[in-house]
Amino acid sequence: MSLIIMGANVHVDAQRLEGLLAFPVRMLVVLFVFVGSMYIGPLYVLGDQVHYRKVYEGLMGLSLVEGYIYYTESIDSLEFVHFFFSWLAGRYLDKDIFVSIANSFLAWVAFGVFRRWGASVVVSAFLVATNYYLIAMYFSAERLKFGFIFLGLSLLYAERLRLFYFFSFLALVSHAQTVIVYAAIFFRIFCGQVCRFLLTGRVSATFLVVVVLLLVPVSLVSGQLLSKFYSYYDGLRGFDELLRVFVFLLLALYYARDKFGALLVFVPLVLVVMLVGGDRVNILAYFVFLYYALPVNKGLNAGVLVTTVYFLLGSFEYVSNIFEYGSNKP
């Protein structure tokens, strides 16, 4: 009996220690991302950053309306949030400082999301600092970065409906790709509501309110969605395009308690990959996999560890290319 009590006390003490370490570790990771961004960011001058740097400089001195017209004509994007922050920051900050601050916000939010999903402090910190998809958002996927910041905030405040809707709205008008995430989430909820209606004849009022409210930002980005669809659609994709999303699906099913629910979440992701390819969707499938895998042993499991090492190697190559070529690709 005494051994059981001692074991319980050790477990409680370990949880308490991790709780105490969470904030300082989070701050250290954010600082690491900021310093790394300030050091590496100025070297990334080719690829996507050619256009982003040109637009950032071109926005200086323009009014809000003039700037938005210039922005949409320069990079063929109607998404307002990245434009607005670029337009505002351009009056006061060098672009690399602006991006480093944005990266710090993304690191802060991502750490909080991973912890909320059940990851340990160490696993959360390592993912934020080294994950390939986050590295890509730090240095090249600039508009998607803002979409993920507000997507993460909406997940952190999912239980507070007003904040959830506010951050979801900002996520959707930040990057049209976030629509896929919310579509996956609500497809699962929708199927549950259909089952509930068939069994009881009732539908959740909260679900209906959220659906109606989210129709507003979705309608605002519908033009951008159609534009992206036509630019990427080239007929139905083959199995090679689906391979990675199926890997993440199988891993998610292995770790998920609600396996049918996990399968429903992946249905929209698989459909989108079939239509426009995996490049823009695999990142979403990976984070869905993390949602199901991180609660298992606080992320210290084979699925998370193997994928983390795999993407760590990709991150090394990504950063090495920036040093050597000024872009993430040779």
Keywords:
330 residues, mainly alpha, 2 domains
Describe the structure.
- This protein has 330 residues and is an all-alpha fold.
- The chain folds into two domains: 1-171, no CATH class; 176-299, no CATH class.
- The protein has 16 helices and no strands.
- α10 packs across α14 (259-276) and α13 (239-255) packs antiparallel against α14 (259-276).
- The mean pLDDT is 84.
Give a summary of the structure in a few sentences.
This protein has 330 residues and is an all-alpha fold.
Please give the radius of gyration in angstroms.
Answer: 21 Å
Strand content: under 5%
Cα-to-Cα separation, first versus last residue: 63 Å
Count of extended strands: 0
Arithmetic mean pLDDT = 84
Report the major sheet: none
Helix content: over 70%
Provide the domain count.
2
Coarse shape: globular
Please provide the ordered H/E string of secondary-structure elements. HHHHHHHHHHHHHHHH
Secondary-structure topology with pairs:
Elements: H1 2-40, H2 48-58, H3 64-75, H4 80-89, H5 95-116, H6 121-130, H7 132-139, H8 142-156, H9 161-174, H10 178-200, H11 205-220, H12 222-232, H13 239-255, H14 259-276, H15 282-293, H16 302-325
